[in-house]
Amino acid sequence: MLRFNFPARTSRGALTEHHAYYLRLTDSAQPGRVGVGEAAPLAGLSPDYGPETEAQIAEFCRMFNAQHLAEISPEAALQMVGPELPALRFALETAVLDWQQGGHRQLYDTAFSQGQAGIPINGLVWMGDAAFMREQIQKKLADGYSCLKLKIGASTLLPSCGCWPKSGPWPRPVSSPCA
Fold this sequence. Notes:
The strands form three sheets. Strands 1-2 form a two-stranded antiparallel sheet. The protein is built from five helices and six strands, in the order ββββαααβαβα. By secondary structure, the chain is of the alpha+beta class.
């Protein structure tokens, strides 16, 4: 179990801990090689999170091991776990990719995976009170992010928090697919 440094607020409540399960692909013929994949559904957010998660993963592992597969591709892995279990599906796919790359926890050989470049993505700002969000926004902008993702959920905080910078191209509203 992972514990958050602060309560990570979502539209469905605050997360203080996160359960993660790790799949390990091994082969007795290659004892030093291990493919690892993480299944980490989020409480209240992931469709496959619940009291049966651990049992579902254990049952999948029993079924998988009973097949005594000599080889498996990422495409075949996707066929083994349905879309109703996205965390387990992701874990198996990444474990297979890791295995194929020699079990070095580097799924792809890229500048990012070699630590030479970042990936220009959005800066995530967790829900919280106005001061907490404002602090996160300022840090993300100072870090060079040009796109921020604010976790505001059903909060009424945003209109009154004064979190938006006074200059620059902010705010840049984005329509919600749920609207």
